[in-house]
Amino acid sequence: MKVNISVDCTPDEARAFLGLPNIAPMQEAAMKQMQANMEKATQSMDPESVMKALFPIRPENLADMQKAFWSQFTKTGG
Q: Is-contact 38 30, C-beta < 8 A?
């Protein structure tokens, strides 16, 4: 015997039916706080330090990184 049940409802309706809390206001407040913190942090940094934080790989380190990858791929099991 095979039974298929199809429920057509919005996420909000499903959340209310299952008794789950609506956390949208909390998420919005957290995102506003995170945005304020990011804006505050970026105002105190110069663009060069931001780029260094986002992209720590420098051209002189690329050769070392390539050697590390190559050594991992060429290792034999055991």
A: no
